[in-house]
Amino acid sequence: MRTLTLRDDLRRSGVILLILGSAVRWSAPGGAWTEPDLHLFPQDGHRYEIVDGSLHVTPPLDDRHEGIVRAAVTTLRGAAPPGWWVCARLGVEFGPSNLVPDVTVLRPHSSGASWSDPADVALVIEVEAPTTKRYDRLLKPALYAEAGIPHFWRVDPAHPGPELTTYTLTADGTYAEDRRIAGDDLVKINSPYPVRLAPSTWV
To answer: Global pTM?
Structure first.
């Protein structure tokens, strides 16, 4: 019986391994990028996503960004009713796209798959960074709306203190802005479940 090697796995997935001296590099697949291709990348702090079959890579983000993500997760977990899940960097798969929000909130009885079905997702949150601002404001919300995710939140950390903008999916399949929240005072948000938050405390 023949033993498959890493090189065999890569060739079978359509990604070719190139060994140049001691350096290992990847070449792109012959066609569209797909979810199995993402497993070939190292856990190096970059975020690897697929948009309509094309690869998108975000460089590692700074401590302020990561601190806001952790604080948002803590806030939402503290208010979550039984059965709800709040996860950092849990991917969402739909059609030819695999996106990784900063925060994903799953409904009860979700599948628990490593890539979530949009039907299980109640809310996604993106925390902006200089390298992701256009991506977080334009492309990703459009894709989340297309997937039917009912709530989208965007955090602007560059505001004097973090500013949270919340959006709800409308009947025409686009997001409408609900409100902007900043400052130290606790503000109640009712969807996807009731939670009180003050974005300035997330840093």
So the answer is: 0.87
